[in-house]
Amino acid sequence: MRSFSKEEKSWMWYDWGHSAYSIIISTAVFPLFYKAAAEDAGVSAANSTAYLGYAIAISTFILALLGPILGTIADYKGFKKTFFAGFSLLGIVATALLTFIPNDSWELLLVCYMFIAIGSAGSNVFYDAFLVDVTDDERMNKVSARGFAIGYIGSTIPFIISIAIILLAGQEVLPISITAASQIAFFITALWWGVFTLPMLRNVRQKHYLNREPRIVANSFKRLYETLKQIKQHRAIFLFLLAYFFYIDGVGTIITMSTAYGTDLGIESTDLLIILFVTQVVAAPFAMLYGRLADRFSGKIMLYVGICVYIIVCIYAYFMKSAFDFWVLAMLVATSQGGIQALSRAYFARMVPKVNANRFFGFYNIFDKFASILGPLLVGVTAQLTGHTSMGVFSLVILFIVGIVILIRVPEPGKGQAVGFSGGNSDKTSGLN
């Protein structure tokens, strides 16, 4: 078995660093910090969860509009890494700024969170597109899944440090407030994210690109229009994006709002943090398992498995009443959340022409991000109308069902050939460095 190359490892290191954001900011510490701040300001639990959902929806809407445009420009030589670095820096700096925002400014916390979310998701557009530059079609399932697995493992280190500081806060060994401890956790996240972005910036290069030409922006909009026509013409890519839109909506909503949901159910913050930590540990081997099983059976079969697990999660969440139920739910999510995301990324990367990967991943991003608007909005509105977040979670079942029905109609991409493309594409000025 061929060992991982320097480029593949450097690409994976970004997941190791960035995943600290995913658990500490997106899932664990920040939601608890924000919920406590909102509660102290007199905001009800249902409303604070709804406002968090709206903040997620707004930030993802902004990036959904930017993704295809910047992705098209990034097909030109040198732009992919520039955009990746810019969005990464935005997310890292905004995360560091959380350290200085007082906990009584819950509105400002949400605004800063939106900038972090834009930086994180924006960097991931180009990070995902770099998959075609660091490996080949035959290794995409393995490399993509290993990236997610390493991310889960890497995120546990700053998470353990942060939780230890929070749990020890207010005691003799660490005479600081829980607020200060949470802010230290935010700084640790920014530092971890920043340090492990460096290997990606140093060692990964854009191998597939278009040579630069005059009027890059104007030509990019022209090529963007051509891409829209191509997506309509090439049924396989369009169907996959449509299926992805529905099932990833449910996945993203469950991940980003799980902590807020657990809080609304009355689960103690300490229990939530422990559950989330164990979820990260369990998710790592399952992500790698999905990659191996995808090579043995197929990526599509394993996507079916992951979607079915999430349908069970949504149904179980509706009846959840205790911390034990949340444990069961979290372990179910852990078995599939990394696998379904990793295999979706690899599946799409094998479908699109490599020289236009950024352009097509821009559309992959827009389907991802617009999906991330619908789910949180659905949960938020339902929570406010019914006073019960569980109704919104249960309603996500229909998204997974629609997604799997459409996915059935998507053909498995052939090795070494982009589905729906024969002999190339409309862009002739490509090159390799």
UniProtKB/TrEMBL annotation:
Keyword Transmembrane: yes
Stretches that traverse the bilayer: 20-38, 50-71, 83-102, 108-127, 148-170, 176-198, 237-260, 272-289, 301-320, 326-348, 360-379, 391-408
Location(s), subcellular: Cell membrane
Keyword terms: Membrane, Transmembrane, Transmembrane helix, Transport
Major localization listed first in the record, in broad terms: membrane
Membrane topology per record: Multi-pass membrane protein
GO CC, alphabetical: plasma membrane
Domain Major facilitator superfamily (MFS) profile positions: 236-433
Domain of life: Bacteria
GO molecular function: transmembrane transporter activity
PANTHER family: AUTOPHAGY-RELATED PROTEIN 22
Protein name, entry field: UMF1 family MFS transporter
Species per Swiss-Prot/TrEMBL record: Paenibacillus prosopidis
Lineage per the UniProt record: Bacteria, Bacillati, Bacillota, Bacilli, Bacillales
